[in-house]
From TrEMBL:
Domain PhnA protein N-terminal proteobacterial: 6-52
PANTHER family: PROTEIN YJDM, PROTEIN YJDM-RELATED
Gene3D superfamilies reported for this sequence: SH3 Domains (2.30.30.40)
One Pfam family from the record: YjdM
Protein known as: PhnA domain-containing protein
Length: 192
């Protein structure tokens, strides 16, 4: 059975955040690189667009997190925590965050996208053209790069898919060049 089928069965084909059954889809929580039932949830188009910042946040829509934050599924708990963090300036999300519990490992995963930080404190990765990079993006090398620890040279124009961001250094991303996972400097890549 596919991950999507298992999620549909688990959620009864409804959004696991707001319980809508309109236009639901699988959402893999960043920075997860593998689609599994434990790292994915079902979301509606409205939730998806706000999570991905395609539309403006509607604070009243997210009052549904009062229920979904108590889900038994960790992926739902993590997304509820992240959305409450985005909305914490509204007042009521702060109360829910005070009640919410995530164990240390899951809290560490929830914090990977820096939703809990103020905008001024967030590390923002940008490519050579100044375009913001996100975990899971695809980039292309704009310069030949020698791969440390091997004789391999990654040629200009090589695509690096599904990158991960270094949360400590704004200049570093990780990605696979061929079979080798390597650190790449952001000024040598362009977002696809």
């Amino acid at each position: 059975m596919s991950v999507l089928q298992m999620l549909k069965e688990r959620s009864n084909s409804t959004c696991e955040l707001c319980a809508s059954n309109v236009d639901t889809r699988q959402y893999n929580i960043p920075p997860s690189l593998n689609e599994t039932v434990d790292t994915s949830l079902m979301v509606c188009a409205n939730c998806y667009d706000q999570i991905e910042k395609n539309t403006e946040m509607d604070a009243n829509h997210w009052r549904c997190l009062n229920d979904s934050m108590w889900s038994e599924h960790v992926a739902v708990q993590i997304m509820a925590w992240r959305m409450l963090q985005r909305l914490r300036g509204e007042g009521w999300p702060k109360d829910l965050l005070d009640m919410m519990y995530l164990d240390d490992d899951n809290l560490a995963i929830a914090r990977l996208t820096d939703e809990h930080k103020d905008e001024a404190d967030k590390i923002i990765h940008r490519d050579c053209n100044g375009v913001i990079l996100e975990t899971g993006d695809n980039v292309v090398l704009v310069k030949d790069l020698k791969i440390k620890g091997s004789s391999q040279v990654a040629k200009q124009g090589t695509a690096v898919r599904n990158i991960r961001l270094d949360r400590e250094n704004v200049s570093y991303i990780e990605g696979k060049v061929g079979p080798t996972l390597t650190v790449i400097i952001t000024e040598y890549v362009k977002k696809l």
